[in-house]
Each structure stands twice: as structure tokens, then as C-alpha cells.
Amino acid sequence: MRLISLSLCLFLLLAPLAHAAGFRITVLGARGGLLDGNLSAYLVRPENDPNGILCDAGTVLNGIQTADQAGAFSDLRLPLNTPDSRSGFILHDVIRAYLISHAHLDHVAGLVLVSPDDAQKPIYALPSVHAILNENLFGSPVWINMTDRGNEPRLGKYHDVDLAVGTPVSVPQTALQITAWPLSHGGMESTAFLIGSGRDAMLYLGDTGADSVEHSTRLHALWQAVAPLVRARRLRGIIIECSYDNARPEKLLFGHLTPRLLLEELNDLQHTAHASLRGLPVLVAHIKPSLKTGDNPEKTIAEELNAGNTQGVRFTVAEQSMSLLWK
Ligand SMILES: [Zn+2]
Ligand SMILES: [Zn+2]
């Protein structure tokens, strides 16, 4: 009897872990410019699992400290034998890899700044993104080469891993798989990452323009790729940019989205998938702050998105330190 109740206890204890899927998302940085302590960086982990990946790295250490002070990492227990502070532990042992969508500074500044005190880990990106980072940042006069590629001397702390479009890769030391899809960002190649955890999936999109403005089919190709996941109700959420409000003229978008264009793209996803998006969480990222008195781009963009939300998705404007569970 005692053996049976012990096994039952063990089963109840382990069952949630065995079925752990879904995603815990912690926003380390939310904005698309200006604010140096709050730039695009989204930590993604499977639920109940400390080991995650950082999608873009505009702000890293300030994002970790601000989010930790706000209680966003209350699930994390510091190992007894670590010399690290809580921030050090999260930087070294929770962020197991970086996924960089493109080389613009608001997506890599935090990575560069923490690199002298970071642990060994891989940087996943499309080859074009690695090439720009290695020619113009790591190993250029701007910063020492922390990677294992490009100009000597190479410190090799970061292992550059090229992603092939549409080919899933498992991220070591995590339970996550990632697949890259190219995006068109005002003449620059950016990246969407499809992230898998068990049977669940979510999308993180780096900066992107709409197909109609970019004269591109890349977003449509991404929607085609994820359509089966939408139909199977396995896509748990989308992190996507909406940099400007609808008043911004198209010729000044520089490869970004407005509420009208984001809604147009979600409409295309719905049509391509032949499935309802009702209730799908959409985290709105990369809003450009305004320095004009009275301007509130977060409020305007949220209002414009909700006013046109015929698909019934659940829009949330990303804020630093936000912690979301998608499952
Ligand atoms: Zn950006
Ligand atoms: Zn950009």
C-alpha cells in the first residue's frame, strides 16, 4: 500500500513535467527604438522549465534585472552552489541560446554589451544575418570578436549556427525546436522563428513590412507554412511588430507594420489557413516611442488594432517585464 501511494505521489509530481509544453514568455525589452534599456528581447521557455532562448537581444541585462524585480522570474530557484547573482544565473543558465532576427542595433545592442560576462552559447540566425554581424560588429573596430567566425582574434564564446530556411533544429540544453523563415524588412533580410515545444508552437517575428508594401511574398509564405498548425489549433500565439500607428505614410514605414497592415496580414493568415484565429494571442512588439507631448503610440496602436479586429484575436501590447503563459 505504501509502495502504491509512493508511486502515485511520484506520478502526480512528474506528470505535469512529462506533459510540459506551452510557452512562458518574459519580455526583457519591448520597444522598437530610442529607449536603450527597453529594446526588443523576448525570453521563451517551455512552461515549468528554466531553460529558454532569447528572441532578439536589444536589451539583455537591464531587461533581466527589471523583470526580476517585477517578479517575472518568481518560478526560478537559484541553485545552492552557484557563485552567480540572480541576474547572472538568468543570463548564464536560463538563456541557453540567442535567436537574432536581423542585425539592426535595436536587436543586438544588449547581446554586445553582456558578451564579456556571458557564458558559452550558440547564436542562431540566417547566414545573411551572421555575415552582417561578423563584418560590421563582432570583430570589427566596434567590438571584439566574441564569436567563432570572422576576423581574428576570435574568442569563440558564441558559436554561430546558420539556420536553413524551413529546416527545424533542436536547441541543445532546451526542449525547444526552432525553424527560420525569411522576412522582408525594407530591403534587409529579417527572420521569423517558429518555436516548437512538444506539440505546441508559437511564432516570433523580427521586424517586417507587409507583403503589399514590400512587394514581397515572404509573409504569405510564412502563413502557408504555419497554416496546418493553425488548423490543428497548435499555434499558441504570435509575437509580431507594429511599429507605427495608421497615420504614418507608407513611404516612411522603412519595412515596418501599422495596425492596418498587421490586420491585413492576419486576414491573409486566416484565409490561407482556412481556420478561425478567434482567441489567438498576438503580442504587439516593437512600437516606436514618441517624444512629442501628448503622443501615446501604445494607446493609439492598441485602439486601431482593436477597432479593426474582425478576426477576434487577443491583442496585447508588449511591455517590459510582462510574463505570459501560452498553452
Ligand atoms: Zn528593430
Ligand atoms: Zn530593423
From TrEMBL:
The record, for CDD domains, names: class_II_PDE_MBL-fold (cd07735)
SMART domains on file:
Lactamase_B (SM00849)
A family per Pfam: PDEase_II
Record flagged with keyword Ion transport: no
Domain of life, per lineage: Bacteria
Q: Where is the signal peptide?
A: 1-20
Q: Which UniProt keywords apply?
A: cAMP, Hydrolase, Signal
Q: Which PROSITE patterns does this entry report, sorted A to Z? A: PDEASE_II
Q: Which residues form the Metallo-beta-lactamase domain?
A: 38-256
Xref: PANTHER family: 3',5'-CYCLIC-NUCLEOTIDE PHOSPHODIESTERASE 1
- Say which family it is in: Belongs to the cyclic nucleotide phosphodiesterase class-II family.
Q: What is this protein called?
A: 3',5'-cyclic-nucleotide phosphodiesterase
Q: List the source organism.
A: Acetobacter musti
